[in-house]
Amino acid sequence: MTADRELVRRCLRGDATAPRELVERFQADVFGLCVRLLRDRHDAEDVAQEVFLRVFRSLGRWDQARPFKPWLLGITVNRCRTALTRRGKRPEPTEFLADLPDAAPPTGDGELARGVGECVAELRDDYREVFVLFHETGRSYEEIAEVIGRPVGTVKTWLHRARQAVLAGLKLRGLMTDEPQPATTPDKT
Asked: How deeply is 155 buried, as exposed, middle or buried, from its count of CB atoms within 10 A (0-12, 13-18, 19+)?
C-alpha cells in the first residue's frame, strides 16, 4: 500500500508525527493479534510495545517492494512466540485455579464459544498462529505464509490440522457429535 510506504519514508526521514501515525494505524491489528495468541491482555500490551520498538529499529531493513502489514504481523508473531517461550520457563502463580470448579455451569452458545477458545488455546503454537490469523483476523493463506515465513502448502496443512484438533477437542468436551444434525426448516404456521 502506497500510504504505508509513504508513512515509513516519513518515519525514516525523521518526521516527528510519523511514528505516532504508524502506531495509531496498526496498533489495533498488533494488539488484537497479541491478545489472540497470548490469551493474556497484560502480556499482549507488553508484547505490542516490544513489537513497535522492534519495528522502529528495523524500518530501514524493510523491503519496500513488499507490503508493510505482513512484515509487521510477522514481527508480531515472532515476539509472541518469544513471549510464550519465556512464559513457559516461569512458574504460573495461579495454576491451582484450573482445578477449581466454575461458579456456574456454562450454557448456550457461550458454552460453544468458550469450548472453541479452550481448544484453540491448547493447539501447538504454530497451529494456533495459523488458526488465529485465518479465522480471527481474516488473513489469506498467502498473507499468513508471508507473516510466518512458511510456504502456502504448510499454512493449509497446519490450518487443516488445527481445525481437526479443535473439532476433536469439542467432541471430547461433549459440545459436538459425529452424528449429522437434522436440517432445520422454517416453521410454516
From this structure: buried
